[in-house]
């Protein structure tokens, strides 16, 4: 990993990453095209030793930062990190040229939203968002479909992280507490209105080193969801609605309740912007999944347990931009793993569970495309008559 120099004269204020639709670890926005999440050593090691063939399907790893947490005199919570002054990673600087939607209007939108989502510690001992935050976030209910300008799942996670750090601050009796974070490419940065599908991949979610209790919990979640039948389940979703300017959002609890048919119906809704279904972008998504399938097939002894797959497209009707990325590698293992606790577990061949999930996902997408063609043909025939 290339070492980066930091500017010690200034600090950068982190803000909640608005487009986190799944996961259990909160993510924060570092700059326009970079996010950060709490450092997990196994995940860090995976990013640092990842095979080259997989890098085009994962967020770019951009280093490690130390983030400090404190509360100002008014109770507002500050999460700050030292910004990079210079970095020898040429790929990071070149990526800025590929960001398609860092328009003035988008910057204004983001800045206005950030003002609404300030976390504050009150004298009664509670941490919550400032009163300017809209009711669409305050009224979020776990497992329910929500309509919101900002994905409520991301805000819930950031609030929980702040509560955890606040308690550490009290226990340690310090002015500030620090944590290590990893910097990752913000894969949504190129999209004006990112529509995001977060899918938990594979028929097995537990890692070799998980405790019996955690292993049984993960097995049960798989058995009671589409993970057992399809090798994939919905972990979170947001879909931009043109007329309202808001996102339809679902969380992982909603995804766990879905049957096979319910999962398929949710994928259909993922391409519905309230006016039309964006089925025109599905062929390119399917192509990307096929390339990913070939890539994972070539990776012997790799396992991506509890990993997710992000599928992203732009809510702007005139945009055909899409992306497919693998994320969450805290439980991924590979032949070069140095952890003694997993050294006795040798997995031969590619990750068949992940490949099974990709196959079923492609099948569902192809079915949706074919049904869309049939529906269009029927309408055309009716008009001709």
Task: Set down the secondary structure blueprint.
Blueprint: E1 4-6, E2 12-13, E3 15-16, E4 27-31, E5 34-38, H1 41-49, E6 61-71, E7 77-81, E8 84-87, H2 90-95, H3 104-116, E9 119-121, E10 127-129, H4 135-138, E11 146-148, H5 152-172, E12 177-185, E13 194-201, H6 212-223, H7 227-230, E14 232-241, E15 246-250, H8 252-256, H9 260-270, H10 282-297, E16 303-304, E17 308-314, E18 322-327, E19 332-333, H11 352-384
Antiparallel strand pairs: 1-8, 2-7, 3-4, 4-5, 5-12, 6-7, 6-12, 9-10, 11-15, 13-14, 13-17, 14-15, 16-19, 17-18
Helix pairs in contact: 10-11
> C-alpha Rg, in Å?
21 Å
Low-confidence stretches: 1-9, 85-108, 336-344, 379-383
Instruction: Count every beta strand, where a strand is a DSSP E run of 2 or more residues.
Output: 19
Taking the sheet with the most strands, its summary is: 7 strands, antiparallel
Give the neighbour order of strands across the main sheet.
2-7-6-12-5-4-3
What is the element string, with H for helices and E for strands?
Answer: EEEEEHEEEHHEEHEHEEHHEEHHHEEEEH
Q: How many alpha or pi helices?
A: 11
User: Structural class of the secondary elements?
Assistant: alpha+beta
Averaging pLDDT over every residue, what do you get?
82
Percent of sequence in beta strands: 15-25%
**Which oligomeric state applies?**
single chain
What is the molecular shape? Answer: globular
Estimate percent helicity. 25-40%
Q: How many angstroms does the end-to-end distance come to? A: 65 Å
């Amino acid at each position: 990993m290339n070492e980066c120099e930091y500017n010690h004269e200034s600090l950068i204020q982190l803000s909640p990453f608005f487009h986190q639709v799944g996961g259990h670890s909160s993510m924060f926005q570092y700059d326009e095209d970079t996010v950060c999440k709490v450092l997990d050593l196994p995940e860090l090691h995976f990013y640092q030793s990842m095979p080259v063939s997989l890098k085009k399907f994962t967020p770019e790893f951009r280093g490690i930062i130390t983030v400090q947490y404190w509360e100002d005199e008014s109770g507002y919570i500050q999460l700050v990190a030292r910004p990079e002054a210079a970095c020898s990673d040429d790929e990071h600087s070149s990526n800025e040229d590929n960001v398609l939607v860092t328009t003035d209007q988008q910057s204004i939108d983001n800045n206005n939203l950030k003002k609404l989502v300030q976390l504050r510690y009150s004298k009664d001992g509670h941490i919550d968002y400032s009163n300017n935050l809209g009711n669409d976030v305050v009224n979020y209910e776990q497992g329910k479909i929500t309509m919101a300008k900002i994905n409520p799942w991301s805000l819930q996670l950031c609030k929980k992280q702040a509560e955890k750090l606040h308690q550490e601050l009290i226990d340690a009796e310090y002015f500030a507490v620090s944590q290590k974070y990893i910097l990752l490419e913000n894969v949504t940065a190129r999209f004006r209105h990112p529509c995001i599908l977060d899918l938990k991949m594979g028929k097995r979610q537990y890692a070799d080193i998980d405790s019996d209790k955690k292993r049984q919990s993960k097995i049960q979640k798989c058995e009671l969801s589409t993970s057992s039948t399809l090798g994939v389940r919905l972990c979170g979703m947001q879909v931009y609605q043109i007329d309202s300017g808001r996102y339809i959002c679902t969380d992982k609890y909603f995804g766990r309740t879905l049957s096979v048919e319910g999962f398929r119906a949710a994928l259909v809704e993922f391409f519905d912007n309230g006016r039309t279904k964006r089925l025109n972008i599905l062929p390119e998504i399917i192509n990307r999944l096929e390339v990913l399938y070939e890539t994972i097939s070539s990776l012997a002894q790799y396992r991506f347990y509890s990993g997710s797959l992000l599928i992203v497209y732009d809510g702007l009707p005139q945009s055909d931009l899409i992306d497919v990325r693998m994320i969450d590698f805290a439980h991924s293992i590979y032949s070069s793993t140095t952890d003694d606790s997993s050294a006795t577990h040798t997995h031969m061949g590619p990750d068949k569970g992940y490949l099974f999930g990709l196959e079923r996902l492609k099948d569902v997408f192809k079915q949706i495309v074919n049904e869309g063609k049939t529906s269009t043909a029927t309408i055309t025939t009716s008009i001709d008559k």
